Amino acid sequence: MELHPATTDPKGGYQTVDESWDHSGHLALQPHDLAVKTLGPCRIASPLMPLLKDRRPTYHAVEEGDRVLLDDTLSALSQRKGSIQDLPAFEPAGPRTKIYFDPSKTRAAIVTCGGLCPGLNDVIRALVLELSEWYGIRKIYGFRNGYEGFIASYGRQVVDLDRASVARINEHGGTFLGTSRGRQDAGDIVDCLERMSINMLFVVGGDGTIRGALDISREIAARQARISVVGIPKTIDNDVAFIDQSFGFQTAFTEAAKSIRAAHAEATASPNGIGLVRLMGRHSGFIACYGSLAIGDANIVLIPEVPFRLEGEQGLFRHIDKLLTDRGHAVIVVAEGAGQDLINQARANTGTDASGNTKLLDVGVFLKDRIQQHF
Question: What's the rounded Cα separation, in Å, for the pair 119 and 175?
Answer without folding.
Answer: 9
